[in-house]
Description:
The chain is mainly β. The longest helix has 21 residues, at 29-49.
Amino acid sequence: MRGALAIMTAALLACGGWAERSAAEFATVEEMDRYVAAQMAQDMQILKTLKLRELYAAPDGKPENPGTREAPIDLKTALTDPVKVSAGTCVWVKGGRYETGKLNQSKDVKGTREKPIILRAAPGERATVLGEINIGGDHLWVWGLEIAGPPASGVNVYAPCNGIKVINCVLHGHGAAERPKDRKPSGHGIGGWDFGSDHEFYGNLVYWNGWNWLDHGFYSQNQPKHTPKRYVDNIVFENSGWGFHLYGSSPYHYGYYLEGNVAFATTLIPRGSEAGAVQGNILIGGHKATRCVILRKNIGYHPKAAESKRCVDIGYTDGPNYNILVEDNYFMGGVNAFELRQTAQATVRRNTFWAPNGMVSVGIVPPAQAETALARVSADPKSMLDLEKIDFKRFGVVFEENRYIDNGKFDLERFRAATKTAQTDKIIPGKDGRPADVAVFKRVNLYEPERVHLTLFNWPKGETVSLDLGDVLKPGEKFRIMDVRDLWGTPALAGVHAGKPVEFKPTGPWAPEFASYVLFRPTPK
């Protein structure tokens, strides 16, 4: 929660008047930002005061069991029996392998905002669901499960339902058991689709899903009648299609909030993918205008082998796109590190960009054309856009205080002249057309503060990096650093924090240049 919003958030929480706001109602991206901050703060307050009835599920559980630790239920019963599982129930999923195939939640198994149903891995246990979970009831939180394939498609919201959360799950290997003959999607990691409001996808590891370029880590749409979808602190990588594919051919590109996500090496999965179909890390847009989008403090990395796609792409084909804020991100690689298309209004500030050949690409729709196009959209009786709430004087694409790591090719003065902006942007030195310094990013998990996402850019490609953990560990605290591909395997590093930096050797297929981890520390009291 950002301090500048504390007073506004307190007022919103007191009156509760923002709960039903939809993306179409936001006159400015700042208004959407305040709304999302208030919702997240309210969620954290609910989490602190939750008092839940506890049940247990196990691989050998039975429907007729009472759900105690000694006599657990099965996972299907946990999602389909509204008598056993009602609002305010936490089903602890014990460790083991659940060979379930498709699990469809009944619409009658539903919680409320103040009393959600939580399906959560038991503390310290590895609960592996071999199949998929299709959510159909309100206010279900799926928390801490490993959901693996093939076959099937990880977690999906196919039915109109509200208050859905997928938290700190590990979703991998979904898709066809063998390469499909056609190009139909066969396995996303998480499918958000365009149903319902108050959906959050937080802290998940999503990788190795799909067989072709239509299979993505995250796939989602959102209608203007729904509140913004939140994607926060996820790590998505090496999927067959895009990392984030927030897309649709109908006008469903409204209300996306992405913060603290790490998206890297899309398409470059061990199984390979279709020739010539290298995808980017983040795509937000489609065949209609994109509106109400915030990208904040995200990380994107595309290795040089993936130059044929953009690292991050907003807008896709049609516009005019507006109410877009892109700030404090670190986007590296691709044919362009960042592309903004068919845009009438956006603010792009304090980001760091680099790509080996390109850098950024911007397609601007002049304000006069934007007014004409938006008026034409509003004349359509099917349109849900309220033009009276749009301040056209604010329209314009603004670049400010961004940093471009020198690749020896990007001409900032030419970019300024073409876009009529970027006067406070600057080029910072690199080395041989590449970034020169080590960059380390840490994100403490809101739902489980003992988890910290740790991302390393070792641009000098030294064998080790000096890793300072003093901001997340106290002297004498034990820790272990786990590769994101093997959360239950051998630590990349484990020990006791001595109060000084440690020499750390990056691991994984993109090392020594790049690596991503989850650091575990003692559980806060």
